[in-house]
Amino acid sequence: MKNWLLTYITIGLIAVVLLGTAIVLPSNLNHKSVLVTVSSQDMIALAMQSVVHIQAGDPNDEEGNSWQGSGVYIGNNLFMTARHVIKGQTKFKITFENGIEYKADCVYMESASDVGFIHVEGMVLCESLILNTQELRRGDEVYILGNPFGLEFKFSVSKGIVSAVHRDAEGFFGDKLIFQSDAASYPGNSGGPVINELGEVVGILVGGYGNVDNLSLCIPARICQKSLEIFLKIMEMKELI
Hints:
The protein has 241 residues and is an alpha+beta fold. The chain contains 4 helices and 13 strands. The protein starts with a helix and ends with a helix.
């Protein structure tokens, strides 16, 4: 009888493991990591908290010398965007999805690529997104976050893949290699982050071609990182002067 009972208990334990039922392990075991699965919807919701709308110049300027764009908070009171979003302006209003606004007038534009940064005073109460500088591959899944056509369709997301890498688009987009995606983008998306399935920034959107909405050109994060390092060195030198 005892042998039969032991057999039933053993079979039951094996069934529990095979069926995937959670088992509480002793608390004194040393676990190195825990895998947590997050849905793409939750990931996008978290990442969007770091995305901003950028108003460059006075929107009431009668001469129309103002425009809108997108950006992303990367920590240390710094926002990353596209160079052409901030070029030619000295005053900016940055707005998060929750309505919090910041005014700024300190910018840096990288001459070798279409990357720019805005620095604001005061404390920014927001989590920053991580830059993933690893090489992208064709077929990688990506999301473009930003503000197509400005405030009218603010804080939107589109999904696609990396269509091509190492595209050469000298001139308006800078002379650094860019990557191409079929995720939809429009005017106003410029400077917005391109993220992967983990919510990491793999690049920023800098433009597209004509009326085509699914041919998006992006600066890879590794180029953004190099531009950031230059900017931070300049900021350090200013503190020493």
